[in-house]
Amino acid sequence: MPSVDPVFLERVRWRCRRGMLEMDILLGRFVEQRYAQLDAQQREAFDELLDLPDTDLWDLVRGDKAPEQARQREVLEWLKQV
Fold first, then answer.
1. Number of separate domains in the chain
2. Which of 2, 31, 55, 69 has the greatest number of beta carbons closer than 10 A?
3. pLDDT (tens digit, 9 = 90+) per residue, 20-69?
4. What CATH number is given to the structural domain containing 49?
């Protein structure tokens, strides 16, 4: 499993703090359970997802919308499993 710099990981956790409690919980669990296993491209896709507004990201996680970027699909599937 690739290692993640603890300072960088803390920054990722901070970016996962959202205005929706559901998103806070989901993203926090994802970072704890899966983030260290992501490769560089998957981390970029996750970063792109974090750039989205809460409602858009929530719609993607719930399957109400399809991701614009194909590379985000795998990360979204993992988010749904958390």
1. 1
2. 31
3. 899 999 999 999 999 999 999 999 999 999 999 999 999 999 999 999 88
4. 1.10.150.250
